[in-house]
Amino acid sequence: MNEIKIFCPATIANLNCGFDVMGLCLEGIGDEMIIRKVAEKGIRITKITGADLPLETEKNVAGVAALAICKDAINRVAMEHGFEIEIHKKIKAGSGIGSSSASAAGAVFGINELLGKPYTKHELVDFAMKGEALASGCEHADNVAPCVLGGFTLVRGYNPLDVIKIKSPTDLYAVVLHPHIEVKTSDARAVLKPTIPLKDAITQCGNLGGLIAGLYTNDYELIGRSLQDVIIEPMRKQLIPNFDAVKNSALANGALGAGISGAGPSIFALCKGQTIAEKVAISMSNSYQNTGIPFDMHISKVNDEGVKIL
Amino acid sequence: MNEIKIFCPATIANLNCGFDVMGLCLEGIGDEMIIRKVAEKGIRITKITGADLPLETEKNVAGVAALAICKDAINRVAMEHGFEIEIHKKIKAGSGIGSSSASAAGAVFGINELLGKPYTKHELVDFAMKGEALASGCEHADNVAPCVLGGFTLVRGYNPLDVIKIKSPTDLYAVVLHPHIEVKTSDARAVLKPTIPLKDAITQCGNLGGLIAGLYTNDYELIGRSLQDVIIEPMRKQLIPNFDAVKNSALANGALGAGISGAGPSIFALCKGQTIAEKVAISMSNSYQNTGIPFDMHISKVNDEGVKIL
Asked: Is B210 in contact with B256 (CB distance < 8 Å)?
């Protein structure tokens, strides 16, 4: 096997109560990548479609992630060859559903496959994080972890990286509304306060615990009660026009919960079952029409597999 | 059935990463109470042994909790009688292992039994919390919830009260060292800061998520990695002489984790299996000898049943 085509799914990080620690993987939207084993050593990005991204390996998140795994892999396998990478972006950059993470995860997953799988999926998260760091300025795993592992993931901690896949019910759907506006990462960070009230941290912890308990026990109502964010959403929602109206329409139409996907501007809702998800998508869409801002809608089952060979 | 004898277990609140939300129930130590149905209406505390506590119903946590359930119960059952309560304290007041919660939980549990169980255990937590409020000044459930429900519990939130019992492995033991010093609740609160760094809240959330995931999946190592407290312990440990030495001896001898029980001064360790728990107890005990402060040691399996009829 010298060439594989890969599906690199979009992801939703934070999930309201899990700021910087929780994420989930989507099925209905993702990039495609082709990874090719070639005689010439090193990593080359040979083609990018769907986005205006740098081809230089060191300036591309997929390239940096690929370099990270290859640098380590020489200790595990004979590597008398290099890799070419094609990236076909479907996830828009800056949408808040893990565009850069998909590229980073796809690169390391694909190279690992072509090397004969010397690494576990959990180990791949670490390499993908190196690529993600190029995009965000710091190593964080809340999108790459669900992209690589699938399903719901928890980043317990970083020293060393400790990522847990959380078992979840099979009938969960996510709805994503992506308004075509730019929320600069610097703005999304600037609105956050470096300190928070202790009582808010306790509320957030209670809800995160509830979310994880709800996922393990297939308790959809508990999942819904737990999908609250008293820390980040009140600050960041001002950056997203019509956020409250969209969220309220999702909840009024049966969503378990709704909030900001990642750092925004995408707004997500979690739903039990496809029928409710479709109803919620229509209501969110209707409530955004009058803003005059163009937007995309995605409906997706939670993807338990993660990045995969097509 | 007009009289029952009840075992009212001690509990450990907070468990490091779960400040104000997590708790667990102990088996080896608890109070005993006798609840008696009598012709005369109202609640009377007729006897207290083992502690110098008020007999006046309105000034006693068991009395206040009993009044709370009886006030509500007239809407559910015919109540042409009253109750007498005897309290035999084994859990020392101010030890940090849920002494007042045991009394409050015992009273509501016993009365519910004698009324023919009109309430679920989850409903009893709410009444017990009314009694607990007398002792601590505010209604909180992190000790009464595990005392009533047994095992590990999470208080997801308070509006309304939402308590989740968390499934846990069967071979978990707690070791408790109770130094005979008084840590005033006002002092334990005064050392806490009303605001905390956002990054510490994220670390704490990651660990709480890890603890709950570890409990559901019987992953003792994950439980151990998660039993960390970056928010409260650094502040409160200064109130407990020799805390670091005791904690380090527990960890060095195989404890999964160790920390402050409730608001202290008790120090707890969680261990996998009785053999390790006994070794850890000896090491903690040895490391406390040289303080000259008298102390008690308890070794207890986690009690999955909670308050019960003897």
From this structure: no
